[in-house]
Amino acid sequence: MGNRDRLIEKVHDFLNNEKLFEHSLAVATTAEKLAFEYDYDRNKAYIAGLLHDIGGVYPNNERIERAENFGIFLLAEEYKFPLIIHQKLSKRLAKEKFKITDIEILEAIECHTTLRANYTKLDLILFLADKISWDGGDNAPFKGGLLYSLEDSMEVAALYYINFIKQAGLKVVHPWLIDAQTELSDRLK
Predict the structure, then answer these.
(1) Cβ distance 92 to 107 under 8 Å?
(2) Cα–Cα dist 118/182, whole Å
(3) Is Nucleotide-binding a UniProt keyword of this protein (predicted)?
(4) Over residues 51-76, mean pLDDT
């Protein structure tokens, strides 16, 4: 059994949730494909994709307490909408439980839901892979436009998605998402 197979097995056992595991595998595969298309390390993209949602092992009603116990700094928006906290929890668990030391992988995991300013290529790959392999199934209302925008570039696709979800009426707009939107808009001018 290779390293990848062992990691897949560990993630499966850790999550103990088939739907979340299947989503994680789909994101890992999509991230690997995007990495190939955009000349990035496919293995790093796959690992980031596989581990991106491991913080989802904690239910929303436990995420604030878990984050505080781990010493994770939370923003006001995260207290209002604890679902978002899973990205920070995932980073912590990837480091502690899965012994990931690659900072680029850890930081991409940390911002996979919101993106952030000063994003890296891996941040974009994981952010988009998560949306392309949306855990709500293939009926994502943004998917067609996202894939069409991806024909231009990852940046165009990321900005398309952010604009779409903001117009759709997010419950809480995370400051990292606003920062990413501003940076993407400025870069694409």
Answers:
(1) no
(2) 11
(3) yes
(4) 97
- What's the topology of domain 3-187? Hypothetical protein af1432 (1.10.3210)
* Average pLDDT rounded to a whole number, residues 27-44: 98
140: left (phi over 0), alpha (psi -120 to 50) or beta: beta
Task: List, for residues 94-105, the tens digit of each pLDDT value.
Answer: 999 999 999 999
Query: Tell me, what's the pLDDT at 2?
Result: 78
| Count of CB atoms situated within 10 Å of the CB of 20 | 17
Question: d(Cα 107, Cα 110) in Å, to the nearest integer?
Answer: 5
> What is the pLDDT, as a whole number, of residue 67?
98
Token readout for 89 is 């929890």
Pick from 70, 30, 68, 52: nearest CA to 150: 30
Quote the tokens at residue 159.
Answer: 């900005």
Q: Is the pLDDT of residue 12 over 80?
A: yes
Q: Which of 130, 61, 70, 125 is nearest to 94 (CA)?
A: 70
Q: 94: helix, coil or strand? A: helix
Give residue for tokens 């796959």: 46
Domain edges within the chain = 3-187
Alpha-carbon gap, residue 144 to 149, rounded angstroms: 9
